[in-house]
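Hi R.,

Here's the chain you asked about this morning:
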Amino acid sequence: MSFWDGLWRGRSMDFESGSAATNSIELTKRHPTVSLNKQGAATGNLRVNLSWQMRTSDIIGKQRGGSGLLRHPFKMFQPDVVQAHTQGVVNVDLDLGCLYEMVDGAKGVVQPLGSFFGSLNAPPYVKLSGDDRFGSPSGETIYVNLDHRESIKRLLFFAYIYDQTPAFDRTHAKVTLYPSNGPRIEIDLDERQPQARSCAVASLENVKGELVVRREVKFVYGFQAELDRLYGWGLQWGRGYKAKAGGG
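And the predicted structure, written out as tokens:
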């Protein structure tokens, strides 16, 4: 197979995946909620993914005229400088966390900070797949075992910047919920809040047996304790630290 055939195949595959990617629900201010029950998606594992990339408006010269491509046509084959969640460019470490409250009154948090990774097959039935600090395009993921939905009262998914300069205004972050069935649910963190360190992104609430996802997108200038006060969780918070990368 020639180089050009491979290139053409790759581009056609991109178009095919792009058409499939339209199977989604975007939660907005005007349409902030969706019922997982009505989507037939209230069972199995719910995957919640946080990913981000630098805003294209911050890439100097990236959008400056197509004339550059005419002068240097092979530039179209060069990969973009900025990949999703590339720390070397954005210099920001976004983390994904989840506050949980169970029907029996138990409360807590699942997050990388403090190594609270949770559990999928035991309470709280919420588990973080790991702390991604290495520029992976996949971002970070939390799993929720909805087969135990009767034990879950409410969840609050949030993103925060651990120890670097606040840069929510420089990154285009998105949280995507992938139910076991039906379309994925997308929530963009599309408000410019340059000094914010945390953002409540989405809630999942058990309302008389119906699982309702709600867009929150509320930025705060503090950390988890401020989100706690905003949503009335009532936990005690102290300074936490991450384990060093590489285990030491």
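The chain is about 15% helix and 35% strand.

Let me know if you need anything else.
M.
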